[in-house]
Amino acid sequence: MIPDPQDQVIDSTDIVDRLAMLGARYDAAPNFPSDSLAALIQSGHHRRFAPQLCGGSAFENEVARARAMAKALRQVGRGDLSIGRLYEGHVNAMSLFDWYATPQQLEWLTQVLDRGAWFGVWATEPAPGVRLAGEATLSLIGEKMFASGAGGLDYALVTAACKNTARRLVIVRANEKARTDLSGWRVRGMRASVSGRYSLDDMAVEPLMLLGKPGAYDQDPRFTAGAWRFCAAQLGGIEALASEIRSAMRDSAREDPLQRARFADAVVAVRTAGFWVEEAAQRFASGDADAVAVARLTRGVVENAGFTVMEAAARILGTRSAFDGERADKIIRDLSLYLRQAGPDHARDEAARTLLDHDIWDESDRLW
Q1: Which residue intervals of 44-80 are DSSP H helices?
Q2: pTM above the 0.90 mark?
């Protein structure tokens, strides 16, 4: 996707309102959200977390980069959670290029980013999965599902099984309409994420399009601890809903101590989730030994915050929270789907195993 040239740059402080306005339009008539992504290019979000050699921003260190990324993901998610999901995939791809790309691949990446290219990362697949076939000439077999941005993004990094080695990342074109199947993406929320199926059958793979060594993508802590990124995007939507509750509260609700208590509980849940997302991002960036456990716990904290704030919206705003066209309704529908990331109970259980083994907090503040 190459956006039309834009003369006016959107201030980043206005991007939330712009994404919210566009999001309402794409929710009513689901299509790939080209205008929303064009707005992110204008606001400076598109290239900010690309490798520095490809025009990305320079950060003091990895912790500063993660802190800035968390803020950006929250900001985009606050505007529109469908765009938050797409943007999270893009910044994830930029990080993978930063970690694993060769000089030739960085040169290629610079060229396509100059043209406004957007990336995704697609790992989910129906059985028997995607595999890399051939020897002298490589090609892919299989398809991806829940492939956000299918048919609209320019490129995706896809996982592919290999004979005799761990699976690899392959850079593929993601905008071929003939390979795209969106017929099954009939959902209440997250409509503009267009998370359909994408066939990779007989797609030729050049050596330049193999990113990283076999098994690189699945290495922990980067793989599992990286969950903090989608938590940050989800948090942005939860923050937007809390703000919407406050602005839409009637005077009678503001004068009711029970409703005020519900609103206070919602704000506490939002801010608590914010603390955990910040901690998870910091642990990830610093390579902390317990980054995986913190990320797993953060998933549950953010999910619970979403449930708390959605319940508060229903009780404080009443039927208004369910009317078509109301911002609260759209956010609730989006959160109801986006919070259903795979395996939340398993993630929390694995974190609990770690906690039973040792305290994961700072050494100066451990309880056991």
Answers
A1: 62-79
A2: yes
